[in-house]
Amino acid sequence: MPETELRIEIIALLLDADFKLRPDTNTWSHSDGRPFTRAEQATAFQATRAELEAMAALSTRNAAAVLEQDNAVEALTELVLSYFARHPEARMVMHVLPHMTEEDRAEYERLCAIAAPDGRRDLPYED
């Protein structure tokens, strides 16, 4: 196998890894807490430098995307709440949309695309 060929399954496994060694299994864990199997641990140890670098780059990009999404949710909330404050009779976002300026409506759409990239308007929230 050429050194530059990246094995996607190894990169995916590494992206899902919590690299703290578990004392009960002497393996790493998946991000959901499940321990790596011995086979998964052995596979992870076969990662090449190029695969580790690819995983690091993807991890950095994912972190940046999460930060961008969090910032968009915050800005979107501020934008919508400013219109609710001016229109207390409004009960839902769809009630304030007609009152938005063209500029704010464009910003609303831009922020929605970042905050809810799947197109859903069910934005992330914390309980």
What does this structure look like?
The protein is mainly alpha-helical. The chain has two domains: 1-47, no CATH class; 66-127, no CATH class. Helices cover 57% and strands 3% of the residues. It has helices at 8-15, 38-45, 49-86, 93-96, 102-115, and strands spanning 17-18, 29-30. Strands 1-2 form a two-stranded antiparallel sheet. The protein is elongated and about 60 Å long. It starts with 7 loop residues before the first helix and ends in a 12-residue tail after the last helix.
Oligomer: single chain
Mean pLDDT over the full residue set: 90
Poorly predicted ranges: 123-127
**Through-space gap between termini:** 48 Å
Number of helices: 5
Kindly report the spatial arrangement of strands forming the biggest sheet.
1-2
Shape: elongated
Largest sheet geometry = 2 strands, antiparallel
What is the string of SSEs from the N terminus onward? HEEHHHH
Helix content: 55-70%
Number of strand segments: 2
Write the layout of secondary structure elements.
Blueprint: H1 8-15, E1 17-18, E2 29-30, H2 38-45, H3 49-86, H4 93-96, H5 102-115
Antiparallel strand pairs: 1-2
Helix pairs in contact: 1-3, 3-5
Features:
2 domains, two-stranded antiparallel ribbon, disordered C terminus, mainly alpha, 5 helices, 127 residues, 2 strands, elongated
